[in-house]
Amino acid sequence: MSTLKIVALVLIVAGVLGLVYGSFSYTKETHELKVGPLDVSVKDKQRVNIPIWAGVGAVAVGAALMLVDRKKT
Q1: Which helix (DSSP H) or strand (DSSP E) does residue 48 occupy?
Q2: 24: helix, coil or strand?
Q3: How far apart are CA 4 and CA 38, in angstroms?
Q4: In this predicted structure, what is the pLDDT of residue 73?
Q5: Structural element, H or E, at residue 61
Q6: Out of 21, 38, 49, 57, which residue is the most buried by the measure of CB atoms under 10 Å away?
Q7: What separation in angstroms does the CA of 36 have from each of 18, 29, 32, 40?
Q8: Quick check: pTM over 0.90?
Q9: How far is the CA of 41 from the CAs of 2, 22, 25, 37, in angstroms?
């Protein structure tokens, strides 16, 4: 399997996942206060929205790369 085909498959899978889920979240830990042996930290939950155009674009570019790879061989 060529590198171009692998990149195309990754783009297609990432695009479909972006369209299905629409966003993902992660936890960011920040250290707010450190006084002597006392350490206070805050865990902040961040949410990242994935635009629809990005998912569609990734699927389209992945499909185009698959077609280019197919015509090349």
Answers
A1: strand 38-49
A2: strand
A3: 52
A4: 60
A5: helix 52-72
A6: 57
A7: 45, 20, 13, 11
A8: no
A9: 46, 30, 19, 13
